[in-house]
Amino acid sequence: MQKVTDIQKLARKNVLGLRPYASARDEFTADGREMVFLDANENPFDTGVNRYPDPQQRFLKTILARLKGVRPAQLLLGNGSDEVLDLIYRAFCEPGTDNVLTLPPTYGMYKVLADVNAVENREVLLTPDFEPDVEQVLKLADDHSKLLFLCSPNNPTGNSFSRGHIRTLLEGFQGLVVLDEAYIDFSEEESWLSELNAWPNLIVIQTLSKAYGMAGIRLGICYASEAIIALLNKIKPPYNVNALTQERAAQRIAAQQEVRKEVRLLVEERKKLERELVRIPCVEAVFPSDANFILARMDDAGKRYHQLQQLGIVVRNRSGQPRCENTLRLTVGRPEENEKLLHALKSL
Ligand SMILES: *Cc1c(COP(=O)(O)O)cnc(C)c1O
Predict the structure, then answer these.
(1) What value does the mean pLDDT of the chain take?
(2) pLDDT attached to residue 80
(3) Which band of pLDDT confidence, cut at 50, 70 and 90, is reported for residue 4?
(4) Which one of 87, 109, 181, 186 would you pick to mutate in the ligand 1 pocket, going by the greatest count of ligand atoms within 8 A of its CB?
(5) Can you give the three-state secondary structure of the chain, one letter per residue?
(6) Going by CA atoms, what residue is nearest to atom 10 of ligand 1?
(7) Which one of 33, 117, 249, 256 is at 20 to 30 Å from 319 when CA atoms are compared?
C-alpha cells in the first residue's frame, strides 16, 4: 500500500506562502561567456573567496546525488546537521501548537531544537534493548505530531534499530519521520536512502562530520521528497554553506577510497575495543555498536570518567541519560589512542 502524505497540510501556513530568496546571480545562467559581476557589492579583487558562494550548492549536490543514487532536487545542504534539523522544525512545527516525538536515550539536539522553537517534545523511552517502543509512539502521536526523530545507529547506544520497527513507524505515523543516519557508514545495515522514493513522509539526515572526517567544515545533508526539499528551500538562509566548505566537501567526497579505508580501519578498531573492554574489571557491560563509538557500563562511571581525565583521556559520561546509568561513551580513535585507553582502563 502506498503511503499518502500531504506535505502542504503538514507545513506551517506562513512557510507555504514564502518564496525562496533569489540572489541576482540565481537569475542568470552561465553560458560560457566571461561576465562582469557588478550585482552583489563584492570586492572584485581575487582572494579566492571574494565572491558569494553558490546558494544552491549545485556542484556539490550533483556529485552527492550521483554517489547516493538520488536526484539533486531531493537534497538540501546545511551548516551541519544541526542547521538542517532546525530548518525542519521551522518548516513544519507551529510554536506552541505542534509537537514532536523523540526516543531517549538519543541525540540531544532534537530536544534542544524543540525547546528553542517552542515546540512540545513528547518522549517515549527506548525499550531496554534500545529499540523504539512502536506501540507507545503511535499511541502518543496526535494530529499535531509533526515529526518523529529516529536515530539509527543511535547515539549514544550505538545500535541500529530493527528495519521492521522503522517500517511500522513509517506506515503508522501521520507526520514526518526524520531518520538520522549520522553513523550509517560504520553500520552493517543498509541506508534507508534506497527507500526514499517509496516513503513520502521520510527524511534522511546524513553528515560529513563522522565517517568523512570533516566535522570542522560543518556540512549536513538532508534527503527527502522534492516537495519537502522545496519547502525547506523557502526558509533556508541563502548562503548557509560557505565556499570553503563546498570546496573541501567536494574534494573529500571524491576521495571515496580513502574514506572507505578509514571507515574499515575504525570498524576493525571498534571490534577490537569491544573484545578487550569486556575483559577489564571496571567495565561491567559493553553494548553492541554499529557506529564509531562504544557505550560501556562501568562499575562507577563518574569515578572512572575523572580518573581517565587525570590520565589525559577525555570520554563522554552518558550516565545522566535514561537507561544509561553508569555508562561512558567511548569514541573509537586511532589504534595508538585506543591502546592508550585500554591501558588506562586496565590500570584503574
Ligand atoms: C554527530 C551527530 C550528528 C552530526 O551533526 P553535525 O551538525 O552534522 O556535525 C548528527 N546526528 C547525530 C545523532 C550525531 O551523533
Answers:
(1) 96
(2) 98
(3) confident
(4) 109
(5) CCCCCCHHHHCCHHHHCCCCCCCHHHHCCCCCCCCCCCCCCCCCCCCCCCCCCCCCCHHHHHHHHHHHCCCHHHEEEECHHHHHHHHHHHHHCCCCCCEEEECCCCCCHHHHHHHHCCCEEEECCCCCCCCCCHHHHHHHCCCCEEEEEEECCCCCCCCCCCHHHHHHHHHHCCCEEEEECCCHHHCCCCCHHHHHHHCCCEEEEEECCCCCCCHHHCCEEEECCHHHHHHHHHHCCCCCCCHHHHHHHHHHHHCHHHHHHHHHHHHHHHHHHHHHHCCCCCEEEECCCCCCEEEEEECCHHHHHHHHHHCCCCCEECCCCCCCCCEEEEECCCHHHHHHHHHHHHHC
(6) 182
(7) 117
